[in-house]
Design brief:
The structure is a single chain. The strands form two sheets. Strands 2, 4, 5, 6, 9, 10 and 11 form a seven-stranded mixed β-sheet that branches. The chain has a four-stranded antiparallel β-sheet with strand order 1-3-8-7, with no helix packed on it. It is an all-beta fold. It is built from no helices and eleven strands.
Length: 123
């Protein structure tokens, strides 16, 4: 069974920064898609960012428009870990953030999920 373990959530003021981490339990994830979704109260789970190592030093990266220029996703294949650096946080970024992983492009139907970590941005 594959497990994804998240950390790094918390409470921050608007304009502040947080860094989320997600570590996978299997080395095969080095070539898989890993990323982040979020779900705010009363809303559907939405895609935030994903990254896939496509060989050598090349990566496929994608972001939802609302976080472009503020969030940066990265991964350390040696540690089976994906990171989400979140800068210039806004109250509307408040949500539970979920790590996801799969062998293809991530969607809300992706196979592996973490337990979620709360991010709260105060105004």
């Amino acid at each position: 069974q594959v497990q994804l373990v998240e950390s790094g959530g918390g409470l921050v003021q608007a304009g502040g920064s947080l860094r989320l981490s997600c570590t996978a339990s299997r080395r095969t994830f080095s070539r898989w898609y890993m990323g982040w979704f979020r779900q705010a109260p009363g809303k559907e789970r939405e895609f935030v960012a994903q990254i896939s190592w496509i060989g050598d030093r090349s990566y496929y990266v994608d972001y939802v428009d609302s976080v472009k220029g503020r969030f940066t996703i990265s991964r350390d294949n040696a540690k089976n870990t994906v990171y989400l650096q979140m800068n210039s946080l806004k109250p509307e970024d408040t949500a539970v953030y979920y790590c996801a992983a799969d062998s293809s492009v991530l969607t809300t139907d992706s196979h592996y999920w973490g337990q979620g970590t709360q991010v709260t941005v105060s105004s």
